[in-house]
Write the structure tokens for this entry.
Amino acid sequence: MIDAYAGASILGRAQKAKLLNVKTYQLRDYAGNKWGKVDERPYGGGPGMVLRAEPVIKAVQKITKGKKVKIIITSAGGKPLTNAYAKKLSKEKDIVIVCGRYEGIDIRAKKILKAEEVSIGPYILTGGEVPALAIIDAAARQIPGVLGKFESLEESRVASHDIYTRPEVLKVKGKNHRVPKVLLSGHRANIDLWKGKRRSQPK
């Protein structure tokens, strides 16, 4: 899943240009048993299964080879992913992201690895792959050259939540939907003012 997304479009081009490198690892390869079993029932009872600490620790230790590396665990209860946090991540040389699964990961893995839990929102997903992709994407776009021009980075320019393109007049069911006149004026200061106002308005 991660290889497919990271190998396509902007991230794919960035990898070909050697601006970043995304490599995936199968946790089952570090299960330590012939069945590739990486989960167990939780102590204290409860529904679902929990990822065992040992495979996670072994995998991370094998990947990092003893080097000090930023380690992230995807978790609904972690610190929120923001542009500011993504920018900090973009400065890191190496990052390991452990994708949570089932009911989560044995907390001892986090403590032993000194990992940081990160959440992409106040909701629960079936696995940590989508959050991992969100973290990769958010951090990658902060790396110079990944988006091409500096102006492509939305937070670095005056931008509105409301955007328009051709045609100037869109006709749907007999009704004309027009582009705001200010965007056609060529008056940069007025355009930026309009964009700033639209951006600050709640949706």
In short: Residues 2-140 form a domain with the Alpha/beta knot fold (CATH 3.40.1280.10). The two ends are 32 Å apart (CA to CA). The chain is about 35% helix and 15% strand. The mean pLDDT is 92.
